[in-house]
Amino acid sequence: TPTPTVTPAPTPTIAPTPAPTTPAALPFAAAATPTIAGTARAGFTLSARAGTWSPWPAFSYSWLRDGEAIAGQTGVTYRVQAGDAGSRISVAVTGTKAGYATRSLTSAELLVPAASTPTPAPTTPAPTPPPADVPYSVASTPTIAGTAQVGFTLSARAGVWTPWPAFSYRWTRDGVAIPDQTAVTYRVQEGDRGTTIAVTVTGTKTGYVTQSLDSAGLLVPLPEVAPPPPAPEPEPEPVPDVAFEAAPDPSMTGIGLVDYTLTVKAGTWAPWPSFAYQWLRDGVPIPDQTGPAYRVVAADVGTSIAVAVTGTKAGYVTETRTSPGTAVLATPVPPPPPAPAMPFEATAAPVIQGTAVAGGALRAQTPVWTPEATAYSYSWARDGVAVLGATDAAYVVRRADSGTRITVTVIGTRTGYQSASRTSEPTAVVVDAFDVPPAQPAPAPGDEPFASAPSPAITGTASVGSTLTAETAAWTPEATTLTYVWKRNGVVVPGRTAATYVPAPRDAGSQVTVTVTGSAAGYAPTSRTSAARTVESTGEGYDVVVVLGQSNAQGVGTGWDPAVDVSVPGLDQLAGSGTRAGQIVPAKDSLSHVTTWTTTGGVQSVGPGMQLGRRLLADARPGRKVLIVPAAMASTSMTGDGSYAWNPADTRSRVNLFTRALGQIDQALAQDPDNRLVAVVWAQGESDATRTDAAGYQGMLLDLVDRLGARYGEVPFLIGGMVPEWMNASPLRQAIDTAQQGMPALRSNVSYVPGAAGYSRAEDSIHYTAAGARAMGDKFFAAYQRATGAVQISR
Question: Where does the record place Pro residues bias (predicted)?
Fold first, then answer.
């Protein structure tokens, strides 16, 4: 039997799974052919104008010469080169936006005319030219800071030029000068949309070639055209409205008196609707009163005011709720104002009783005022700085007061009279209790005096570093014990109780004495004091410069550079704050002012003081050093705020910063008789722009300068200008600057130092950067050099 043939079943064919498709990119609804603005001549700048696209994309640019891309020219502007002569310039603009097909369009070409052959000059010999001006060694291309949006302000940044010239500015729109726009800033206008804004900065200086440089352009975008709205969805079948889950009665806040305002509180509705309001007088709607607040009028007196609140929301039943009424009462007649307070007819300054020794007690004795004050309050101060918590009539002198002078301010009050304050004369310099020699022991009964007790003599060279010795001739009978106390200018030198004494630098120019006390059994202790010896002056003291003002004086500038902002041997500071306040320590940024500016992370800030100090040290004669007295305090004003003031005549503020600065200067000069005050730096005015006018500010500053001159002589007083970009933005700030600029005409020792342009901090334009602070230090030094040619330096 034949075997049947088995035919295999065919394998089924499986169709491939189609790959997912990406939605096709949409074409732009509008894409204009670009145009070129500007003059096609060598040296001129051309600007690309993209025209109107919809929607608005991101643009990129490629400039073409005779149809070929120019290497590296992909900005919105192009400066025509000499090599473009005879060529045709165009620009390709490409628009890209997510979901849309990228598109490129090319502008029409502009022909750059070929250079013409110049006509030969006549052969007549030219006159000898004057000496040619030299070019600047550095002239940076300017930049523009700010946002190129309508209503925003752009600022020109000139960059670094060497040497520093005077600048002028010209703002351009698509390469064409904008009329009357020649300031350092420019406010973007509505007509600037779709154009390119740039600035030309020109530097001029005698002896140098005037040079103009153009910034890169900024494109002011056109408003984005919104895409067409999507087709409306078919409306769902209507459903019946439902009631609100919560609709409480409203309430009102306010007082039911004429000219007072009542305000509605709708309460918490669920869900939250849109509200409409209607105010009611005795239940009747008040015409045109449909807002959330109502001002009570005279016609409401004797009625009840309420408000109806209506809540509406799609899908919910509109509901109205009415508040309880508020009765409107007649406004009571206010009592007559009290009689104006009168000044006291006569007041007297308090007198401090007691001895200015650490541990001793002082008391304020106030003479009788006319009429007598019914209450007195007190504030004790150390070198003009209030002592925290010292507000009683008595004060116990502290060791921390040593080396300072104590004053007390008494404030008298009486009903019907204006409060008045008077400050005492300062005490003598406070002496530490350890500096006071122990009292000589009283003689015991029956003790006899020494038959002979000659005074000691001081031998040795009276100069710094040498050794002085107390030589005592024989006493009769011989003293079994001799003790020694050395004094400087009559004040005990702590710890110096040996027979020898080595004068320190602070002893230079001082008179040194020694008191010897002898004792022996059966004889009364006896003391004898030597004749004084004057310690020779070394001639190697400090040139002292004090820095006064607010934050730009103490330094806020970030950008501390370890290679530039370095300490220098011979440049020190008298610390104004911290654990070493009042001590001479090496100077470094941030300088130790009365308050020291701190930044996040402890970053050091840079002020003008260190740069000025380094320049002064390099200029000082051999052997001299420079001591900076940092006495500035941030956010302080001349006019004062009740807490701090620079105005010397201010008695209202808790701390007079000028008085405190005098104490710091006196302390610096007392360190060595060879110390001399050489300059005062003043960098202040920002906080006074809204507190006083130019005349008031200048009057207070003149008083400050005159008081310094009366105390220290006509030392150069250097006024530093505010940050120009910040100052020029406000007429009030410009008024303070005008007052400062007018000072040199009123006082011969005053110099005005213009602010350094181009160095404002991005974080807050009121402050200089570190580079700006260093630039101001250089400008202060230049002004000091000019001033010292005609100003007698105080010693």
Answer: 1-21
